[in-house]
Amino acid sequence: MPPTPPAAAAANIAAPRADSRRRRRSPAAKAKAKQHLYVVLNDRKDACEIHKLDIDGGGGGRLMMNAGDMASLKTLRRLPEPPLLRLQSPTVHPCSKFTTVGSSIVTMGEYFSDHYCGDWFREARGNTLVYDTKTAALTVVRHLPEGLLGVYDFVAAIAVGANRLYVLDEGTMDDYRGRIVGGMHCFRLTDDDDDGSRKKKERWSWWQPDESTRISWSDHPSRLPFDTITGQIEAYAVHPKGRTFFVSVRQVDDEGTFSYSVESGKWTRRGDWMLPFVGHGHYDGELGSWVGLHHSDDDGRLSACRVVSARQRRALPEVKVSKEKVFVQVPGWARVQAELVYMGGRSEYCLVEWLEPEGSSDEEKCDECVLRLTKMRVVYDGDGELTVAAHRLSGCYKVSKV
């Protein structure tokens, strides 16, 4: 079983709001607006770490601007110690999934049998952990929906608003058809919101595993209009009004995009087209578009498209692809994972890349891997083309693979 990539999650949780009005700010206000990136690593055998990195101050690691700098790997520093938070077994295990919603980092611990994990992981079955980056509070709920208890059952997690997370799985059983078809679960941080229904009638029934916290999971999964067993979710994006999200699915003999309304609780097939991203398409208010890594994995370009109407069925708007390639290309090095993180502000992003020496096997321990952070701005130029501007390296760190 291949290990989870060490850069399991990266997010800007408290991004400054976009502001079109130019104003002079005091030094104190500028310092307050400093941007940070939260990076989750599982580069330790029995622990996961959350690091809070200052990407405006040079990153703290020696900068590697080109292939020649990779030869000086031994001069790279590791991430600052101690991390913001270290989670050790049995609280988490190597295949725990990390995501974000609002100001919180959410960890979902999957099921492991005794055959695979031994005694020290027995208590980690079905844990949901929530770390609030604003209050530094860590909440542990010993529950995970049944459809998410399998090692590979987690498919996608889509944050809608600051309070709800929609988690899709491939482990939910359809009792009527007698087979596994996959489903969708809803996770909420507090019970003081509604699902957006015009009638203010909650679409989900909730189960609160621990009375000491208001954290809840939906009591029953919602059925999906596509098969997550044979299909794969290629991309997803949330409408800026927060009432609809879109999912592009590629199956063996079919592909298409579906939308889910949190108001009606219904899925709608939008057409046979696909969102142009791989993974998350971020809504950029400055551009009025969704922006993400282009779906061609090895391309290293960004793509953008105007937001699709939440109600009208129509084809995907025109897609813009940047001319610039943002991935670093270094002979002898392979890219294991890349993630684009929206930093807010004036269309600011951070590209997080995980690199390891070519030829490294999944089972091989490696102490010479690199976490590379690149900050950039994305704009439409005078011709309406997507352009990467203000492209600069924020830092490189030496990390390990276990």
Automatic annotation (TrEMBL):
SUPFAM superfamilies in UniProt: YVTN repeat-like/Quinoprotein amine dehydrogenase (SSF50969)
Pfam families linked: DUF1668 (PF07893)
Location of the region described as Disordered in the Swiss-Prot/TrEMBL record: 1-31
Highest taxon in the source lineage: Eukaryota
Stretches with biased composition (Basic residues): 20-31
Biased composition (Low complexity): 7-17
PANTHER family: OS07G0234700 PROTEIN (PTHR33085:SF69), OS12G0113100 PROTEIN-RELATED (PTHR33085)
Protein name per UniProt: DUF1618 domain-containing protein
